[in-house]
Design brief:
It contains 20 helices and 15 strands. The chain is of the alpha/beta class. Helix 12 runs parallel beside helix 14. This is FMN-binding glutamate synthase family protein.
Length: 556
Amino acid sequence: MIIPPRYTIFSLVVLAAILSLAAIFLISPWFSLVAVLLVPLALLGIHDLMQTRHAILRNYPVIGHIRFLIENFRPEIRQYMIEGDQDELPFSRQARALVYQRAKGAEDKRPFGTIENVYSSGYSWLTHSATPMHIPDSDFRVHIGGKDCRQPYDASLYNISAMSFGALSGNAILALNKGAKKGGFAHDTGEGGISRYHRDGGGDLIYQVASGYFGCRNDDGSFSREKFAKTSADPQIKMIEIKLSQGAKPGHGGMLPASKISAEIAEARGIPMGVDCISPPAHSTFSTPIGLIEFVGELRALSNGKPIGFKLCIGHRREFLSIIKAMLKTGILPDFIVIDGAEGGTGAAPVEFANRVGMPMLEGLTFVHNALRGAGLRDQIRLGAAGKIISAYDIARAFALGADWCNSGRGFMFAIGCIQAQSCHTNKCPVGIATQDQTRQKALDVADKSERVARFHRNTMRALAEIAGAAGLSDPRDFMPYHFMFRQKDSVFLDGNEVYPYLPDGFLLADDEYPELADWYDRWERASAESFAPPEIPFGPFGSQRKRPGIQERAV
């Protein structure tokens, strides 16, 4: 009988196991130590041959498990042995190291020059001034609250983005919130409601109201005005954010299985134990642009005048213009809008959504900023930006494109020890951040990590003051697109005004049109305050009447 080469190791293991068992009786009981190792391996190999789930194990019994073992450690192997400083999966080693150093208060300088390829397509840089300035105070604040807001909030320019308790451990939430308290900045609760860990930290909160209405829901999952009014009265809550979508999985709902709902999660979300918790893709309280804007006004009244805004990742641009038309028609304005980019993070998202759905932050922010300018509303509404913003340069660039402040989720996760293991969805986070495992999260020391959160924020704000001063500015909010240059290809670069221009104030409402803005006028005409649905169009490409001959596009 000829044994195929792929069964050689398995055959040797079985033979060695048989011999070790015989040796126990014929030579010495000490061979039982060898048998303890070999007999389970032989039984494993037999099981591999009989099982039908994995073809590789049937063809390569015993040794086939090496493949699965290595696959389990692939992210760590790549991160520690293969990954270069500039490989972005999704954050480069250089970017992570910057956060670690600033959070620890360690040296964050680099010797021997940049490792960036400054002549490659996509490289961007900040233009500096021959007369730089020194900015001694880096505690920059933005005043959030419009004409109808009775409890405005002076927010830091850099805050913790939405991450729910349940997605993050209790110790992680507590460390983040204590750090926010120490550093004087805000912590977005995420859609999972306000947990005891948010409250124990004492830091300023942005209460997120999503489609599941956690913390303000009736038993059937609908919005409860009474519960919202009670929750929002908490002085720790400084602003309320309606979540329409998040960058990592816009338009996608979710379900938390009953098996994963602990007593603490049920308490924070206001849901029963033993029942699957559904987060619908869309809100049940409104379904039209006017409905959304009226909901903004209702929440402002129920919260006794706290700043109300909404967060979204831009999808159909026409739909956002519909929201603006609803603002103009009702006279109700949100106090703020947060633009989340498609590069945003999450504990788990379908690959198609994470990779291919939604507009990236730079384009989304620029669009919203110019849309509000076009309607003459930009000065009345604050804009927040989120999406891989972890350095002072990231913040400065977002300000130049229209942001009034920035949020970061994964940046602050790095500050409390995240190693980018990318196991957030497994409940086996190696550093106790993205897990509900009590043993794992105990490894996260709240006192130490909260100091790192505050220190990372403080050092990032100092760095922001330094690069603003280098540009000759006295405040980072004075950054404009022309302060940045963007390389398009090896030998061509453009001024920021050419790549991300500010469009004329009020151009969407003016009588005279700018021919080069034909796309904007077409979408504006198709937008409706009464409905998100597009107007009926003929099959085939939609041809703009304003465009040059031969240029067509499909309606969105």
